[in-house]
Amino acid sequence: MKLCPKHPELLGKRYASNRACVGCQQEEYKARRQTPEYKERERLRLLAWRERNRERARALARKSMAKWYENEENKKARVAQSIAYARAHPEKVLVEVRRRQTAKLRALPAWANSEWERFFAREVYHVARRRTLLTGVKHVVDHIYPLRAEWVCGLHCAANLQVLSEAENLRKHNKRVPSMEDNYAPTLCTWFA
Ligand SMILES: [Zn+2]
Question: Is residue 12 domain-resident?
Fold first, then answer.
């Protein structure tokens, strides 16, 4: 068998089909896998596979995530990252937490699931924080129509948010009684239980 000058350690081992040196062929394949075209094709192939096998892809992702979290260093890094994010974007975190809470109360309407709603809510929380800092008086975000009242409930949406001082908010204490002249129909829902 003819030795390959680049891979004499393989003792001339060659593929039967094309007589190519096994070492050279492997190197060629490896180089091909490094090209951007190949990587892009593989990325699309993986995306298509995930699309066809959603449940399996989800299970695999969950499994690898769980494994990743088993590492204490990873877990610590992830927690630190979350804290840093919350510090840098307090309004974003508040808005998402509030959305999860109000969804549980069934006060989060499907139509309020827009980037505009989130933007508006972030701005409202921002105003509350700025007023607190500027006046030294604690201000909070309030639902004009309370989310939980006797017979009619407000919704968690932009039109139902306002900024009040904490004292005003405590005075109000879920006592807002809706009247016909108010123009807040889209912020209300009625329980017919
Ligand atoms: Zn070779």
Answer: no
